[in-house]
Each structure stands twice: as structure tokens, then as C-alpha cells.
Amino acid sequence: MTALRTRAVHAGREDLTDLGVHAVPLDLSTTYPSRDSADEARRIDEFAAGAVAPGMPVYGRIGNPTVERFEKALAELEGCAEAVAFASGMAAVSACLLSSVAQGKRHVVAVRPVYGCSDHLLGSGLLGTEVTWTTPEDLAAALRPDTGLVFVETPANPTLREVDIAALAETCGDVPLLVDNTFATPVLQRPVRHGARIVLHSATKFLGGHGDVMGGVVACDAEEAGRLRQIRFATGGVLHPLAGYLLLRGLSTLPLRVGAAAATASVLAERLAAHPAVQAVHYPRLGGPLVAFEVDGDPHALIGAVRLVTPAVSLGSVDTLIQHPASISHRIVDAADRHGAGVTDRLIRMSVGLEDVEDLWYDLDQALKAC
Ligand SMILES: *Cc1c(COP(=O)(O)O)cnc(C)c1O
């Protein structure tokens, strides 16, 4: 098995030399002509059952060759058999919940905190699921015969709290464990190695990496992937081919971007911990490009005072992004639940980019003085 950096550049592109092209072909077709409609009928039956039939797809909602390259590459980086791409991270979360419901299991057990909209989707029961919120310690007691999914993020958005995936997977037994790996990326953590069955990404973040493409992806075994493709075909949350192209391009630099940003983030986390205007710093044991910290003063004043850092929600871009979870990314979560999960009103989440560390520190230090 070649190294991750090598696979990040070559996965999903193994046939390019034989095709005689260097850049990945971008296929924007919504439909695919065929003079053999009897064969097409057979292929539609296969696609409808969730299979990946060789050859061209029939229709853009069934599959797309450019998107399939991205899926293949991400599956390889996560060490999974297959991956299924969606229009956004939330479309990917929705498909995973629907997959559980489709198997007659409406109960989901989840560990807070999770991304604000995931929290909202689970808590609202919009897709017919019923959630039990629990802690890793109380997981066993929360499982029921109708539990179809255990849902966890690690490091979690926005507190960066980490859970022991292997311990959780063992408690889950036969119940599939879903790990939202958006924050760690396969560069820092491959959850399947520790017993997770389903790995989810908001591809909008580090996989794309430049703040200009929305997407989601689920890496898993062939059985779950088939079900997710059926759901995607029926509900239509497909990834646009151009997004697939950009995400595949993003993967090639993922290890370098995450490595460089993580090195800068660990320096900033140390300096923030020693800053008089900072009460607490949360930096994962795993490392990574995200730093969360609690300010002594007004968090809004800090956000308003940065000049180099971009005051914006989202994360995983080449530039450093800073936001106030209680106001933005986790606004939709009930305040009591938010506070219970450690998302205090003074918490700031920062996604470190590729700028020079001294330039970033200069900006953060002057902004901290303002708050
Ligand atoms: C952003 C995010 C999502 C949702 O992804 P979208 O692409 O915005 O739909 C899900 N999980 C985590 C951890 C996220 O940060």
C-alpha cells in the first residue's frame, strides 16, 4: 500500500495515462445516449437496486463518471470499500438517517456536541428518526432493539472534544457506528480502522479546501453504499459533476494542507493558552487545523476586530476562518442543549489556514486586545 500523500494524488486517476489525458475528464452530461434500449432497461434495474453497473450511466441522477472518480479516491483514502457523494454534508447526513429508517430502525443514538444542523435534524425528527442523546460512558444504556445508528463527531464541532472510536464501536456491537470525520480528515484519522462502519464528511470543508465547493460524502462497505445510492437516486441529492471535479482536485493537496495548517494551529493554540485575554483553549490530542478557545471579553468584539483572519462560518479553507458558534454555526441548537454540550457563549472556533504563523498571531493578538 502506497503512502497517503501518493494515494491522494493518484487515487481515482489510475486510467488517465491510458486515456491519454492529464486532467480528469469533466463529464457534464445529464443524459447518456444508447441505441440499445433493451440493454439500458437491464442497466436501469441494476442502478435502481443500488449497484454500480460498468459503462456509462443512463441519467445524471443515477451516476456520473467524474463524481465516481472522487468517490473512488475518497473511499481509498478512508480505507473503505466504497463511497457515495452527495450535494452537501447535510444531504449525506440525511441519506444515512433515511438508510436506517428504510431498514425499519428509527432510533438513533447520538453524542453531543455535533454540528448545529446535524443536531437540529436529529432533534427535530424531520426524517422520522427518534434521537436519544447520550455520552460515550452511557452509550450501552441508550441502545435499544430498534437502534439503527450511533452518530458521533470526533473531534466534535465546535468544542473539539474527542471520543475513543474503538471503545464506542465495541459498545455498539452490531449497531452501525457513524463517525463524522470532517474535522480530522483521513489524514489524521481513519475511523473504519477503529471499528466505525460509516464515515461521513462535509466535503465543503477540508476535502474541497478552498471555500468554493459544496459537497458531502459517505465512505462505507458495499452493502451500505448500495442502499445510499438507492436513496440518492430516489431523493436526488446528487453532487454536481463540477463539484466532483473540484473535490477530486482538492484531495491531491489534502495531506499537505492539513499538515501545514495543523503545524500552525498547534503554535497558535500554545500562544493563545498563554494570552491574558484567553480563559481556555481546546486543542485536540489528535492535532489538526482547528482551535477552539474561550475569551475573557466580548467574543463579538474579537470577531469584529480581526483584519487578516476571515470572520466567517465554515472551515477547512486555505485562509483562516473565525466564528462564534453560539451566534452562527450552533445558533439553531437550543441554548440549554448548547451549553450542556460545552458550547459556551464565550467559545470561539478558528479554522487555521495556510498563512504565515507570525502574521496570524499578530492579527489575533491585536484583535484580542480589542475584546
Ligand atoms: C459543515 C458540517 C456539516 C454539514 O455540511 P454542509 O456541507 O454544510 O452541508 C456536517 N458536519 C460537520 C462536522 C460540519 O462541520
Automatic annotation (TrEMBL):
Keywords: Antibiotic biosynthesis, Pyridoxal phosphate. InterPro entries: Cys/Met-Metab_PyrdxlP-dep_enz, PyrdxlP-dep_Trfase, PyrdxlP-dep_Trfase_major, PyrdxlP-dep_Trfase_small. Its cofactor is pyridoxal 5'-phosphate. It comes from the Bacteria. Belongs to the trans-sulfuration enzymes family. This is Trans-sulfuration enzyme family protein.
